[in-house]
Amino acid sequence: MEKLVVRLSKAATKAMSNQILWYYSNRDKSFAKTLAENISKDIDSIAQMPTIGRVIPTKGKREYRVFVSHKKCLIKYWYNSRALYIVNFIFTDTHSPRIF
User: Fold this and answer.
1) What is the pLDDT of residues 22-68, one digit of tens each?
2) Cβ(75)–Cβ(43) below 8 Å
């Protein structure tokens, strides 16, 4: 499968920027940089092989998946033959399916 075009929703962009900014301001600046780089690498990996995420049960036509990008970040996405759509980033300490 060829690499898909990545499209981020407004909610995903806002969630990621808020979280990175919070870590940058309140914690370690190097951790914020590393977190952003790791999430970017994981999005690239998902774009090359979108089936690696875990399918989450939803009602509707789309099959949503989640991928644990970091111990504090889940990437929620769906894809078709042309593009990978990042719906949201869920930042949490536990990755329980209950958060959906």
Assistant:
1) 888 888 888 889 888 999 999 999 999 999 989 998 888 889 999 98
2) yes
How far the first Cα of the chain sits from its last, in Å, is 29
Q: Which two tokens mark 63? A: 């099959």
DSSP state of 62: -
Tokens of 6: 């990545």
Block residue for tokens 């036509």: 61
Greater confidence (90 vs 77) lies with 77
Rounded CA gap, 68 and 31, in Å?
17
Query: Which run of H or of E encompasses 24?
Result: helix 10-26
3-state helix, strand, coil in the chain (%, to 5): 45, 30, 30
* Residue whose entry in the numeric block shows the structure tokens 């898909």: 4
Would you tell me the crossing angle of helices 29-48 and 10-26 to the nearest 10 degrees?
150
> Measured between alpha carbons, how far is 91 from 75 in angstroms, rounded to an integer?
9
